[in-house]
């Protein structure tokens, strides 16, 4: 791996969350892209977050800002501004920068650029990729991914209720999906349904405005409030055969999509950890109690150091995962362990960080409450902690403990 020869601004700052200087593993060009993205996210996106999170609304001007950033499709050969395609290490660190600013924004971008884009990139044929992906790469069109159902989450592989029935060159979809990010405004929603004739799961691109496709925003969330999750009802939705993703031939192909994107959630969780930790560290140095900054108290330092340990260990795991991905030798259990471990460490760090703020930790004005709440969603989506454990457990024991 070619590493950076450019001195990093924080090399002498031993308080940085990148305590072991993992960014030095990037090349100079990768480092330039990361710094550009970091500046963009913190200057253009971060100021919008609290207002919209509090209202539970999506800042649509954010899409226009992303269009000019060049961040979309960087990991895809032939589509992103950075060619050849960005390494998994750079892609991961970009996901971390997104999580560092806001988990909702990271989720919006991950659904579009990861689940939505990759479903077509991997599951579509060349004609389909040429038809949909260029506009998604520039974010002129936004994507979504509809797999989870109201009565099917982790068990959706064997219990998918959404059906597809072919009639000539048309497929008729019926059923429901739930928790579908971006679905209230997405231009293309990749919907998975079980073919009633061969019982195989297939993927379909349902375009915005298709009759019978009805997304309704889910209200009352305490996490990822900016993300416009929807419950979708599909009633005799007619989709042409040309919109069936030709390379999705069963749930095994859907599992491959999740294997690739699950690691991105782990990188996002790392970003959430870092965001909460840095807030807590700054607060500890500024907050005065008993006549001194609380950073001088031993128990406060203990929480900060434990947080930094979680961050550093998680970063090391994800760096090696990215190397395995770049070499093409990583397996499902590799991404599952990363998601399981990093999300659990994130949960600890956001709780410790909120604790350091005392009563102020439940106020949105101090940001840490947002990280604390959003962490719960990241802990559960793209496979719960328990499901990741079972994937890894099956790998190491050779015995399946799934029901």
Give short descriptive properties of this protein.
403 residues, alpha+beta, Butyryl-Coa Dehydrogenase, subunit A, domain 1, Butyryl-CoA Dehydrogenase, subunit A, domain 2, Butyryl-CoA Dehydrogenase, subunit A, domain 3, 3 domains, 7-stranded mixed beta sheet, two-stranded antiparallel sheet, 11 helices, 14% strand, globular, AcylCoA_DH/oxidase_NM_dom_sf
Overview of the structural elements:
- With 403 residues, the protein is of the alpha+beta class.
- It folds into three domains: 22-137, Acyl-CoA dehydrogenase/oxidase, N-terminal domain (Butyryl-Coa Dehydrogenase, subunit A, domain 1); 143-243, Beta Barrel (Butyryl-CoA Dehydrogenase, subunit A, domain 2); 251-397, Butyryl-CoA Dehydrogenase, subunit A, domain 3 (Up-down Bundle), CATH 1.20.140.
- The protein is built from eleven helices and nine strands.
- The chain has helices at residues 28-55, 61-67, 88-101, 103-123, 126-137, 156-159, 251-286, 298-327, 332-356, 368-380, 385-397, and strands at residues 143-146, 163-167, 170-180, 188-195, 201-207, 213-217, 230-240, 288-289, 292-293.
- The strands form two sheets. Strands 1, 2, 3, 4, 5, 6 and 7 form a seven-stranded mixed beta sheet that branches.
- A hairpin with a 5-residue loop joins strand 4 and strand 5.
- Helix 3 (88-101) packs antiparallel against helix 4 (103-123), helix 4 (103-123) packs antiparallel against helix 5 and helix 8 runs antiparallel to helix 9.
- The relative contact order is 0.12.
- Residues 9-14 have low confidence and may be disordered.
- It holds the Pfam family Acyl-CoA_dh_M.
